[in-house]
UniProtKB/TrEMBL annotation, chain A:
Keywords assigned by UniProt, alphabetized: Disulfide bond, Endoplasmic reticulum, Glycoprotein, Glycosyltransferase, Manganese, Membrane, Metal-binding, Signal-anchor, Transferase, Transmembrane, Transmembrane helix
Major subcellular site: endoplasmic reticulum
Domain Exostosin GT47: 106-391
InterPro entries (alphabetical): Exostosin, Exostosin_GT47, GT64_dom, Nucleotide-diphossugar_trans
Source taxon at top rank: Eukaryota
Cofactor(s) the protein requires to work: Mn(2+)
Entry protein name: Exostosin glycosyltransferase 1a
Family label: Belongs to the glycosyltransferase 47 family.
PANTHER family (alphabetical): ACETYLGLUCOSAMINYLTRANSFERASE, EXOSTOSIN GLYCOSYLTRANSFERASE 1
One protein family per Pfam: Glyco_transf_64
All residue ranges annotated as the Glycosyl transferase domain in the record: 475-724
Coiled coil: none
Pathway given in the UniProt record: Protein modification; protein glycosylation
Organism: Oryzias sinensis (Chinese medaka)
UniProtKB/TrEMBL annotation, chain B:
Domain Exostosin GT47: 101-381
Subcellular location(s) of the protein: Endoplasmic reticulum membrane
Pfam family, one: Glyco_transf_64
Protein's organism: Oryzias sinensis (Chinese medaka)
Protein name: Exostosin glycosyltransferase 2
Cellular component terms per the entry's GO annotation: endoplasmic reticulum membrane
Keyword Transmembrane helix: yes
Length: 741, 561
């Protein structure tokens, strides 16, 4: 009984205590919410848990209509603008205040490279930068026509301890007659500052010049004025460049490791903190973060307790193996903000996880890095594993593909890095005719999407699916004529009639490239689609690919005068093209191969099981490629084509495949139309000529050399009408003429 | 209370001996505890419950009931905004922490009125209608938390939307007095009209330490990229006037200028353009015969002819948005609402939400110096693009400009995207209007890859209870060199048409066809659209059925069945 009572007492006391707690009667210091001491000057009516409530009743509006009334008395806006240029200089430079736009107005966006001075040594990388500019369409040898100036003094390495460091740069630059305090100049730089603090100062006064700099910090970066470029190694190829590592997508997209890192750890100095803490996250299973202290002369002197253990673990793994087998790659800052690792991860399709606070990422002005990298925060290192694990596999798949696109579009060669830098500046200069973010961040990328052609996404062959639109459902035929019109039975007459009869034909343009005078109007056949004649001025073969303003449609049907085609064939090819608006769709196909004996590319017209080119004597493609052919390709290649009057079709195939990374599309053709049927006139003689064939071999190799790589891709498929040669009644077939002999 | 006290005092002595009194004793004990509870409860909750009822009845309360705080003259003033502030230097990310929803928590300070020692308020308007709307919208959103300890972002209830109505020094002091101010860390201020005469600074002049600024009218020199947020200047007309969306296309006028406070130099330049291009341009100004006020805001005049504003904006393809004393102009909002393409002439202006919105698809930016070339520049823009821009303009207004709620939540979403970048909204989500979202195709496998043969393929064979035909399929398919794996899937259902041997047999079955048609209709209605596309071509091997030796073909036997 006694015991029972004691229990009861205990119980009741306990219960009442709990009750007291629940009602908040007793205040335990731990449960006390809100800011500690700051509460002391907490104000009347303030308490931390208060909820915001909407206020009812009459409230004034935030602005009134009688504003700006004294503006008219204000100073002239023009004067105000001019005063900006004096006010915002140096670290506050912007295009508006430090760049002279008027230089670009007269001759467009032209770049001048200073002549190299005798005795001035340039690093290979800088040499390559200069030759990339000189080989680009922006280059001008005349400084009076230039809008942008590039020094021929090597400014890449401004680390005083480096052997590449150029001394007396200040004096050398000041003595340049065109320097003009650096206005409209761009200075390329990869390294600045030196141990121990690695400042971003270049060691000379850059004046009004823009910086194209690697490892630039957001603090020093002047938005829309400087360009952040990636850090690249000495061996970075000048042109061409390696393809991305990703050959096919795997689903689910996980690789052997989730997150990897292998690199130096700094025992002292700047950039140590993050790398020192990596071992906390390392689990030696799927998160493998390895560091070594073994670098520099006196690492033994500074070594800490973990060094030996770390070094052993470090040697167990291979850097490349980890790079290619990991879903995510950690890219922490080094001594400087940027590192080679960034580009390496990008190429390896290992999604970079950035841990470099305050690094203005490469080409940040145009690239949306959230689509290809995980932007981490050094302060949240310990959360990184759970963060990357939380990323959905669909997102990983898309991040990974985007790394490959960006790598190949802007980074895989020095030329692309330099051209991207120039294009970014050009976009600023041409404000209203500049690329939208979609053009930069989706295939085929900004270097192939020229805003001077159009700023309208719908005018390019690349964005129909993204915009949910379709190309204009008609085509324009362009017939290239070189022989005079003598008889009405000439094959070109038949061709004209057949093409113009197509329900999709909007217009036929005859490009008259013959030396003979134009035939009289009445000699052209009467057709439903209008025929217009353009008299080629220069009579050169490239003129067939000029971006004529008179082409009213998205699609162009390019034809040789001796091509034999029926209306059905044209109709069918056009419906195929509507499914592949970014590719060349046509009839006769050719192939390339690597001739290992001669160590060069070979060209073949034999009937093979695959093809990589479609002849433009009978092909449909997007009008934009005319523009790209004329403006993007260098004059050297186009002159070569004109002089030989050959290879224009090969060049077009190179161009389109390098843009799309895809082969052309061959459609089926009537059996009577074989290689031997390529007409009886001029072209036949051309084909019979053995030199013609040898020329084409040479062209292939010249082109591949300029592109830096072989862009052509083989295909094994041919597009046939759905019921083609099927055992059903021919009456059920829509394109029955194609089967008929 | 007294009685129980009496028993209580006696109680302990009686416990061991007096058994009869046990019961009384316990009753007493319980009642004491209970009473104690009630008493403490009353004591603890009395003042609080007053507060909380006040909280809940705030709806009926006017701003004058908010507590008034007097600022001592010596009260500390924050430092001016630090131009080098970035998220990684001036923002405490630890407060946001890791959370599975990837959503920041936002706290709003309760409303207070501030006045100096003499009782003069720090602001002439106090809480404005717009700021009230903004804060209410945030408090209704899932960003909101009323738990100050869990908040990642703090929003003062001090209204700084319009700098003109503020006393700068006192406002700054009031900010510094906020209990969680802590050098402005993680505090967000909304300001739409910065600066004041004569030189109109492009960012709020109130010293604010490290606070983030969502400002309307930043220039490239005051905007801290990646830290501040550029927001629109809200147009009060948005709430009053409803402009139905118009189909994109050519409009009656080509260019329209509707602003009333245009500098005379620029007006002269516009007049010149009008002379050159005549009817294509409509140059409006305020109506001289109307008095100032709300009514005049809704009218514009040209040579005595009166036009309704903002309705007239819908009659033009392009609408000029010229800088005034400030870079940010409320006109921009009106113009977008009308689906008119804004032509922005405000050098160095950071366009609203430029961090996420692709303005190149919705506007034309022309340097002020090129005002005289405006007509030529605009004429060079293709029609199709003008139509796309008209559509984009209206979409931007609908989604991001139309209300203070839209402005506020967009701002928070941008900050959210910075803190959880791996969960950020995509370019398409920000920029594609609903009509494009529905019709566009974004393939999850967008990279043009031609996979190597090496990994081969996996065959997945669906089988019913027909073992014989299954074995036949397996034998055939296993001959294929690039087969990597074969998977047989067996559903528990019987094959529908056991006597059918070929697919043809099944397709002759009419009910089967009807069923499948029904499926298609059902699916299309669920998808909301018909995603299937019709093509007339088929991929065959290059030499398919060509007159060519079969043994030289890569795929010789195709089509032989």
């Amino acid at each position: 009984m006694q015991a029972k009572k004691r229990y009861l007492i205990l119980l009741s006391a306990g219960a009442s205590l709990i009750l007291l707690f629940c009602f908040g009667g007793i205040q335990v210091p731990l449960s006390r919410r809100g800011p500690g001491r700051r509460d002391d000057h907490s104000l009347t009516g303030y308490h931390p848990g208060a909820r915001w409530r909407r206020l009812q009743g009459y409230l004034k509006v935030f602005s009134t209509w009688e504003k700006d009334h004294d503006f008219h008395e204000d100073i002239s806006p023009r004067q105000k603008r001019d005063s900006n240029s004096g006010l915002f200089t140096g670290r506050r430079c912007r295009m508006e205040s430090c760049f002279n736009f008027s230089l670009c107005e007269r001759n467009g966006f032209k770049v001048y490279v200073y002549p190299q001075q005798k005795g001035e040594k340039l690093s290979e990388s800088y040499q390559n930068i200069l030759s990339s500019i000189e080989g680009s369409r922006f280059h001008t040898p005349d400084p009076a026509k230039a809008c942008l100036f590039v020094l021929s003094l090597d400014t890449l390495d401004r680390d005083q301890l480096s052997p590449q460091y150029v001394h007396n740069l200040k004096a050398k630059i000041q003595s340049l007659p065109l320097w003009n305090e650096g206005r409209n100049h761009i200075i390329f730089n990869l390294y600045s500052g030196t141990w121990p603090d690695y400042t971003e100062d270049l060691g000379f006064d850059i004046g009004f010049a823009m910086l194209a700099k690697a490892s630039i910090s957001t603090e020093n970066f002047r938005p829309n004025f400087d360009v952040s470029v990636p850090l690249f190694s000495k061996d970075h190829p000048r042109t061409g460049g390696e393809r991305g590592f990703l050959k096919h997508n795997t689903i689910p997209p996980y690789r052997k490791y989730m997150l990897v890192f292998k690199g130096k750890r700094y025992l002292t100095g700047i950039g140590s903190d993050t790398r020192n803490a990596l071992y906390h996250v390392h689990n030696s299973e799927d998160v493998v973060l390895l560091t070594t202290c073994k670098h520099g002369k006196d690492w033994q002197k500074h070594k800490d307790v973990r060094c030996d253990k770390d070094n052993i673990e470090y040697d167990k793994y291979d850097y490349r193996e980890m790079l290619y087998n990991s879903t995510f790659c950690l890219v922490p800052r080094g001594r400087r903000l940027g590192s080679f690792r960034f580009l390496e991860a990008l190429q390896a399709a290992c999604v970079p996880v950035m841990l470099s606070n305050g690094w203005e990422l490469p080409f940040s002005e145009i690239i949306n890095w959230n689509t290809a990298a995980v932007i981490g925060d050094e302060r949240l290192l310990l959360q990184i594993p759970s963060t990357v694990r939380s990323i959905h596999q669909d997102k990983i798949l898309s991040l990974r593909q985007q790394t490959q696109f960006l790598w190949e579009a802007y980074f895989n060669s020095l030329e692309k890095i330099v051209l991207t830098t120039l294009e970014i500046i050009q976009d600023r200069v041409l404000l209203h005719a500049s690329r939208s973010s979609l053009m930069w961040n989706s295939l085929p990328g900004g270097l192939f999407t020229l805003p001077q052609y159009s700023t309208n996404l719908g005018d390019f062959p690349f964005y129909y699916a993204k915009l949910g639109t379709k190309p204009y459902p008609k085509f324009t035929a362009i017939i290239h004529m070189v022989t005079p019109l003598v008889s009405q039975s000439q094959p070109v007459m038949k061709l004209l009639v057949a093409v113009a009869k197509s329900q999709y034909c909007a217009q036929v343009i005859v490009l008259w490239n013959s030396d003979k005078p134009l035939p009289a109007k009445h000699r052209w056949p009467v057709t439903s689609a209008p025929i217009s004649v353009i008299e080629g001025e220069s009579k050169v073969i490239n003129s067939r690919f000029l971006p004529y303003n008179t082409i009213p449609t998205d699609a162009v049907l390019s034809l040789d005068e001796d091509t034999v085609l029926s209306t059905t064939e044209v109709d069918f090819a056009f419906t195929v093209w509507q499914s592949f608006p970014d590719r060349i769709v046509g009839y006769p196909a050719r192939s390339h191969f690597w001739d290992s004996n001669k160590e060069r590319w070979g060209y073949t017209s034999k009937w093979t099981n695959d093809y990589s080119m479609v002849l433009t004597g009978a092909a449909i493609y997007h009008k934009y490629y005319h523009y790209l052919y004329t403006t993007y390709l260098p004059a050297s290649l186009r002159t070569m084509v004109d002089q030989m009057s050959n290879c224009e079709d090969i060049l077009m195939n190179f161009l389109v495949s390098s843009v799309t990374k895809l082969p052309p599309v061959k459609v089926t053709q009537k059996k009577q139309y074989k290689e031997t049927m390529m007409g009886q006139s001029s072209r036949a003689s051309r084909w019979a000529d053995p030199d013609h064939f040898a020329q084409r071999q040479t062209c292939m190799n010249k082109f591949a050399n300029w592109f830096g790589t072989m862009p052509l891709i083989h295909s094994q498929m041919r597009m046939d009408p759905v019921l083609f040669k099927d055992q059903v009644s021919i009456l059920r077939k829509k394109y029955r003429d194609i089967e008929r002999l | 209370m007294c009685a129980s006290g009496k028993y209580n005092s006696r109680g302990p002595a009686l416990i061991p001996r007096m058994k009869i009194k046990h019961r009384i004793y316990y009753i007493t004990l319980f009642s004491v505890v209970l009473l104690g509870l009630v008493a403490t409860g009353m004591f603890q909750f009395w003042p609080h419950s007053i507060e909380s009822t006040a909280d809940w009845t705030l709806d009926k309360r006017s701003i004058h009931d908010a507590p008034l705080i007097r600022l001592p003259v010596s009260s500390p003033i924050p430092e001016r905004g630090d131009l080098s502030c970035r998220m990684h230097t001036c923002f405490d990310v630890y407060r946001c922490g890791y959370n599975p929803k990837n959503r920041i928590k936002v706290y709003i300070y309760p409303l207070q009125r501030f006045a100096d020692e003499l009782g003069v308020p720090i602001s002439s308007t106090g809480l404005s209608r717009e700021y009230n709307d903004l804060l209410s919208a945030i408090s209704d959103s899932d960003f909101y938390t009323d738990d100050v300890t869990r908040a990642c972002l703090f929003i003062p209830s001090i209204d700084v939307l319009n700098q003109n109505s503020l006393r700068i020094r006192e406002t700054a002091q009031a900010l510094a007095m906020l209990p969680r101010w802590d050098k402005g860390m993680n505090h967000l201020l909304f300001n739409m009209l910065p600066g004041g005469p004569p030189d109109y600074n492009t960012a709020l002049d109130v010293p604010r330490d490290r606070a983030l600024l969502a400002g309307g009218g930043f220039s490239t020199w005051t905007y801290r990229q990646g830290y501040d947020i550029s927001i629109p200047v809200y147009s009060p007309l948005s709430a009053d006037v409803e402009l139905p969306e118009r189909q994109p296309g050519p409009r009656r006028y080509f260019i329209l200028s509707s602003q009333t406070a245009i500098h005379r130099e620029y007006r002269a330049e516009l007049e010149r353009l009008k002379e050159e291009n005549g009817e294509a341009l409509l140059l409006l100004d305020k109506c001289s015969n109307l008095s100032q006020g709300a009514a005049s805001a809704r009218k514009r005049c040209y040579k005595g002819q009166v036009y309704d504003y903002p309705q007239i904006l819908q009659e033009s393809s392009f609408c000029v948005v010229l800088r005034g004393a400030r870079l940010g102009q409320a006109t921009l909002s009106d113009v977008l609402q009308a689906g008119c393409v804004p032509v922005i002439l405000a050098d160095s202006y950071i366009l609203p939400f430029s961090e996420v919105l692709d303005w190149k698809r919705a506007s034309v930016v022309i340097p002020e110096e090129k005002l005289s070339e405006m007509y030529t520049i605009l004429k060079s823009i293709p029609h199709r693009q003008v139509e796309e821009m008209q559509r984009q303009a209206r979409w931007f207004w609908d989604a991001y400009f139309s209300s203070m709620k839209a402005v506020g939540l967009t701002t928070l979403q941008i900050i959210n995207d910075r803190i959880y970048p791996y969960a950020a909204r995509t370019y398409e989500q920000w920029n594609n209007p609903p009509v494009v979202k529905w019709s566009s195709v974004n393939s999850p496998l967008f990279l043009p890859l031609i996979p190597p043969r090496a990994p081969g393929f996996t065959a997945v064979v669906l089988t019913y209870d027909r073992v014989e035909s299954l074995f036949r399929v397996i034998t055939e398919i296993s001959k294929v060199p690039s087969l990597a794996k074969l998977l047989v899937v067996t559903p528990r259902k019987k094959f529908k048409c056991p006597e059918c041997t070929a697919i043809d047999g099944l397709s002759l079955d009419q009910t089967h066809m009807v069923e499948r048609s029904e499926c298609i209709n059902k699916f299309a209605s669920v998808f909301g659209t018909m995603p299937l596309k019709v093509v007339e071509h088929r991929a065959d091997p290059v030499l398919y059925k060509d007159d060519f030796p079969e043994k030289l073909k890569s795929f010789p036997n195709i089509g032989s069945l």
